Prior knowledge:
By secondary structure, this protein is of the alpha+beta class. 23% of the residues lie in helices and 30% in strands. Strand 4 (35-39) and strand 5 (48-50) form a beta hairpin. The protein is globular, with a radius of gyration of 18 Å.
Amino acid sequence: MQTTIRQVVRFAGVGLHRGRPARLVLRPAPADHGIVFCRVDAAARGALLPARWDMVEQTPLNTRLRNADGVSVATVEHLMAALAGCGLHNVLVEIDGPEVPILDGSAAPFVRAILAAGVQRLAAPLRVMRMLQAVEVRRGAAVARLEPADRLRIDFRIDFADAAIGQQELALDMANGAFVRELCSSRTFCRQADVDAMRAKGLALGGTLENAVVVDGDQVLSPGGLRQKDEAVRHKMLDAMGDLATAGAPIIGRYTGHRAGHALTNALLRAVMERPETWTWDTCTPDMERLLPGASLHAADLAAVA
């Protein structure tokens, strides 16, 4: 069955890239509404932005939604991952600025608030997008792929020159709260040289050592170090979870990423949508529902990691 959030949830903070403060509110929504952002500060223009693959403006640093009126919301991926990981299908996201607050750089604050508010089941069937054939996109050495599987699985591999990150890989079955237990607390990461370069261009204005893991060679500059030794690859998987959620329905399939980022995952979704023979809509059965990321989720799943 479809779901929505049970109670209104509020957040406030600055964005990682633009550094502007914003207030964000999650509101319950009816069946078949989907995840929709509303720029409440842009009411005179087209303020609604469905969190859908064809609304994504491809950028290397984050996932940004933009509508035909030029209204946009940036850095939606952590919130989208939290919504998908908690099994939410219908939410109105009100925001009064151009970028989702970065909070601690992970999805854990969103997950914590969602679990406290609760999830409401709706009297409407849930559609899932089941992969029938493999689809792959490449850009240089980067690869993103979706292929058939019995549930959502994410495999990811990264390779960075900085010894503090290096080569990392992880494969996870995302069923039954795995996102919350395994991925939601992993923070965004970057190199100190990249931070300096972005700030020279007027970006990363909201970034601090408290809301991102900053590395320099073999050193982790952020206080307290890493939350997990492979936090970087876990965060890339978190990003992939959020970007895949813009498909508009839970995906039943295996996602594989190698050096993949936001733009490549969106390119993969576009390639899949252009090839309708590679996937099908299924009405979610009880057996399928038990394998979805938000099934059997409990507050204790988050308490173990954050």
